[in-house]
Amino acid sequence: MKQKTLLAAVGAALTVAAVAPAQAGETMDAIKARGEIRCGVSDGLPGFSYTDEKGVVRGIDADFCRALAAAVFGDANKVKFTPLTAKERFTALQSGEIDVLSRNTTWTMSRDTGMGMVFPAAVVYYDGQGFLVNKKLGVKSAKELDGATVCIQAGTTTELNLADYFRANKMKYTPITYDKSDESAKGLEAGRCDVLTSDQSQLYAQRIKMANPDQYVVLPEVISKEPLGPVVRPGDHEWFSTVRWTHYAMLIAEELGVTAKNVDEMKQSSNPEVRRLLGVDADFGKAIGLPRDWAYQVIKQVGNYGESFERNVGKGSPLKIERGLNALWTQGGLQYAPPIR
Amino acid sequence: MKPSRSAFLSWIYDPKIRGIIAQVVTLVVLGLLVGWLAHNAVTNLAARGIASGFDFLNDPAGFGILQTLIPYTESDTYARVFVIGLLNTLLVSALGIVAATILGFIMGVARLSKNALVSALATVYIETFRNIPPLLQIFFWYFAVLQAMPSPRQSLGWFDAVFLNIRGLYLPRPIPTEAVTAFVVAVVLAFALWWVIARWAKRRQDETGQPFPVFWTGLGLVVLLPYLASLVFGSPFTWELPQLRGFNFVGGWVMIPELVALWVALSIYTSAFIAEIVRAGILAVPHGQTEAAMALGLTPQQRLRLVILPQAMRVIIPPLTSQYLNLTKNSSLAAAIGYPDLVGLFAGTVLNQTGQAIETIAMAMAVYLTISIMISLFMNWYNKRMALVER
């Protein structure tokens, strides 16, 4: 896969070298002309994006791609998923191979400014980096990890946070950097390393894939802020706003109690906020080239944010992750959307 | 005035001038194409807000590295990470080339053995390892063999100095003392003497036909002189022993399993090809040479060493060079098992942390090109030395 990565990078470099300069509306026009959204997702992370036994890509990141297709085309199935490793993802976006990267990617300043990418301020999942250890070690806190061997995935913010954390706490460690998250999990299972570090959501996902999940425990410390969300190329404001407001529409729908089931009845609602969201009274989609019922289609076909969360990573999934930081702001969480008006 | 006009145009029909024109045109077109691509890339990178250039090399890297041959901390620069990746690539390539050559020669000769069992075993070895993709072999040695190793607390240990566990092979680390100078001088002296004796023995054999056991004398010198030096001046090294502390062994010198797996896999894979090259080289030497050597009364060992191999080498060296190049390039598969080589570390982690795809990939490609050309130049020089001198 090394060579595949290299090939992708070289290919991307050549593509960057050969394509014409970016123009406003370019991405959105291309998407509409093509009739589908090309969406970069993870190469297999339960809860976020993975292929199920029927060959369908599922997860909260995959559902966000579907929501975008529902908003643009009124059909959630008009998505082409491209699985990418952590190392391949940015090159794939920069070179135009995908339209949007929805792959548990942390929003950081350097990624948002100097790398030919922008984050539309839509945080699909508030995460933080944690540690997964074998119970046999008897470790109760990350502070006891001095001298440990740590498995990581290459090319992630995790690599940098890990170094910072051990330096700040004056501890030593040996990193083993694998190409894929599955390999780093295998490294922990084989005993090559003492600890696996990654975003906590990923640790839960990796744990249920292991032969003996009860043997492993996630330590309480969270050592970083990892706001995960979609990324697009700069220069196309329509597309940027579509990505941002699709997420916000899903949040507002949850806030107002609009679900996939009751969205048709809700169209008759007298609540002006609901009427604006569903495009009954006014057409907010027009300004960014979306149909009048864009938010209705998103909620009808994919559901609101809470529904997507519970189905993929929450109570309705094997991961059983609590809402925590990802609860709505009205319920003590961080998920907050500006109003539609 | 037809003749003068044809004289004026006749240069068009001159094959030499035409050749030059064709070459100049090709060169100009190629140069324009490269220039256009480069200009386009720079313009597009700027248009997309991607920083370009090599300034990032001076920024601090901020991540840890599994194996560094030179001192490294997280606050060192990306440039240093580049050097570390390069050294790791060179280390595994050099180890691999030595091991693959030795294994390959043994297997190649064994396949030609008159002993049916030996030649059958060599055939099985060659056909097995030659036909399995190197990446699978690396995974095999890494995951299959790694799983069999004990955890640090149940390490296999010998003499409280050498330990083997899933984290690697731990060896005592020599720390030089003041007597190390005398030791080094003794080693150098021993090798110098070996060389002098070899020259003297060759001259004597040329003149009188009397052979001299050069190898055993030399080996004796190399062992004995340093030993005497350490007796007189004291021990040249103190040994730092690995000790189990906390999760892992601390101190000593560790050979990580990623390096071992990669080394073993690359050596075995390439040795199978080298064995076939050696076999072909030996078969290329006419049978009459063997018969002549037998007639002279040389032992089978001498026949191989003095008559067959030197002639076979002329056939062996050119394809052997290709195998060395292949091994070096295959070492980039390291990233699959987390060995921090140039591709995994620099074209992987650094590329991703900085987003400088074109710059990092170009640097990595330039390195492999340089290494390959250097191996190639060296082997060509060696080939010229070994080639048949026609008189």
Secondary-structure element string of chain A? HHEEEHEHEHEEEHEHEHEEHHHHH
Identify low-pLDDT runs of chain B.
none
Report the helical percentage of chain B.
Answer: 55-70%
Most strands sheet of chain B = 4 strands, antiparallel
Determine the structural class of chain B based on helices, strands and strand pairing. Answer: alpha+beta
- Strand fraction band of chain A? 5-15%
Poorly predicted residue ranges of chain A: 1-6, 12-22
Biggest interface, chains and residue tallies = A-B, 60 and 52 residues
- According to DSSP, the number of beta strands of chain B is 8
Distance between the termini of chain B: 59 Å
CATH superfamily of the largest domain in chain A: Periplasmic binding protein-like II
Indicate the CATH architecture of the largest domain in chain B.
Orthogonal Bundle
| CATH architectural type of the largest domain in chain A | 3-Layer(aba) Sandwich
Shape of chain B: globular
What integer is the average pLDDT of chain A?
88
Task: Tell me the domain tally of chain A.
Answer: 2
Helix content of chain A: 25-40%
**CATH class descriptor of the largest domain in chain A:** Alpha Beta
Could you characterize the architecture of this molecule?
In chain A, the strands form four sheets. Chain A has a five-stranded mixed sheet, sandwiched between helices. A three-stranded parallel sheet of chain A has the order 4-1-5. Helices cover 38% and strands 15% of the residues of chain A. Chain A contains 13 helices and twelve strands. Chain A is globular. Chain A starts with a helix and ends in a 29-residue tail after the last helix. Chain A has 341 residues and is an alpha/beta fold. Chain B has helices at residues 2-9, 15-47, 78-111, 116-130, 134-147, 180-208, 214-233, 257-283, 287-295, 300-330, 342-354, 357-386, and strands at residues 156-158, 162-165, 168-171, 173-176, 237-240, 243-245, 248-250, 253-255. The longest helix of chain B is centred in the N-terminal third of the chain and has 34 residues, at 78-111. Chain B is globular, with a radius of gyration of 28 Å. The N and C termini of chain B lie far apart (59 Å). The interface between A and B is large, with 60 and 52 residues.
